[in-house]
Amino acid sequence: MPQQEETMSYLSFYQKYYGEVLRYLIRKCSSLSDAEDLTQDVFSYCWSHFEQYDARKASYRSWLYVIVLSRWKNHCRDTKGWSSVDDFEDILPMENGDVEAAVFLDE
């Protein structure tokens, strides 16, 4: 079970993770513009669902990267920029197994 993190405001969450998510998506996307758009989409989703975050299920970072993965998969599907599920291997930066647990909880 993930360790409980200290509760943070959305502004703190945004400031802490925005740059990390943008850099990550820049490496994954074909253009800077796509990476910026996806980053905004991710944080827009986080804003509208921030109150639903449950620290007992996953860390903030794990919760965020489940969202990042989902949005990136949607982008790839919509732009036909991937050929198979194998393209998604090693997409998430792992953090003490929290991401794997978060993915199972999200499903």
Outline the secondary-structure elements:
Blueprint: H1 10-28, H2 32-49, H3 60-79, H4 98-106
Helix pairs in contact: 1-2, 1-3, 2-3, 3-4
How do you describe this structure in short?
By secondary structure, the chain is mainly α. Helix content is 62%, strand content 0%. It is globular.
Explain what the structure shows:
It contains four helices and no strands. Helix 3 (60-79) crosses helix 4 (98-106). The chain has 107 residues and is mainly α. The protein starts with 9 loop residues before the first helix and ends with a helix.
Provide the helix percentage.
55-70%
Distance between the termini: 17 Å
The chain-level mean pLDDT equals 80
> Largest sheet, described in full?
none
SSE topology string: HHHH
- The coarse overall form would be globular
Structural class: mainly alpha
SS element count, helices: 4
Taking all Cα atoms into account, the compactness measure Rg is 14 Å
Number of strands: 0
Question: What share of the residues does DSSP label as strand, in percent?
Answer: under 5%
**Uncertain segments of ≥5 residues (pLDDT<50)?**
none
Question: What labels describe this entry?
Answer:
about 110 residues, mainly alpha
